[in-house]
Design brief:
It is built from two helices and twelve strands.
Length: 187
């Protein structure tokens, strides 16, 4: 889904983006509610970038990447956390492109997300290359993954993020009082 956001472009630089996990829902300019094999996902476009809310059987997750005044958590290159019964992995990359490459990449990304059933993209008024885009899927390992792109036309910079959330693999415990020798005898 592609929409034009009804707000001024508020992200000033790629370096102003911050990352936060576990924030309450922030006011959204556009959102898309999806269900992916039991996982409820809400993609949210903020005036200052994005928020993804995930509600899954093994827990919930709220990821915010935005220009957040007073935030002390800059955009990390990578994060890996074990939270309850689920694992969370996040990675970010900032690219500086030539003006022509930037425009071409912006058009490719908007085309990729605009018609995708699990995608949400918003352009900001006044510059067709100023956008935030999100795309979510459930992978073959039953994990929920999303990618996001934030463009900064004035710098010809593109910030991309990749997130994976999945249930922790639990190993079966051997019965109390048995060791591997007694288990062999039972076989």
């Amino acid at each position: 889904m592609l929409t034009t956001l009804k707000t001024a472009y508020s992200d000033t630089r790629a370096g102003d983006l911050a990352w936060a996990l576990g924030r309450e829902p922030l006011p959204a300019l556009a959102s898309l509610d999806l269900e992916l094999s039991g996982a409820k996902v809400q993609l949210r476009l903020l005036g200052a970038s994005h928020q993804v809310l995930l509600d899954e059987t093994y827990g919930g997750c709220s990821e915010t990447v935005a220009c957040m005044p007073g935030s002390s958590s800059p955009l990390p290159v990578g994060v890996s956390k074990q939270l309850g019964d689920w694992e969370y992995e996040f990675a970010a990359r900032v690219e500086t492109l030539s003006p022509g490459s930037f425009r071409g990449r912006a058009q490719e990304l908007l085309a990729l997300v605009a018609d995708h059933p699990h995608g949400l993209a918003g352009t900001f008024p006044g510059n067709p290359h100023a956008f935030t885009a999100l795309l979510v899927q459930r992978d073959t390992r039953n994990q929920v993954q999303w990618r996001t792109w934030h463009s900064y036309p004035q710098e010809h910079r593109l910030v991309s993020t990749r997130t994976r959330v999945g249930g922790r693999v639990r190993r079966p415990r051997s019965p109390v009082g048995r060791d591997r020798h007694s288990e062999r005898a039972l076989a």
